[in-house]
Amino acid sequence: MSGIWRLPVPVQPTYAIDKEPCVPVRLVGGRQESLGLRDVLIRAHEIEDLALPVPPAVSALLRHLEPVSQIRP
Questions:
Q1: Strand, helix or coil at 46?
Q2: Global pTM?
């Protein structure tokens, strides 16, 4: 194997960020809940605010969610 580099085989992700609850949100009634990214988009009408403790984290999440929400089927 002189001079040939082999990349490792990618491992399947074990955490499905679209389904696993990872985004803390505050719902319209004031209750807090964690949702996956898919549920954040589906239940956007029920969400009053993102309950992330650091403003840069909110900004980063919104930068990722905005383009995804613009995709048309």
A1: helix
A2: 0.73
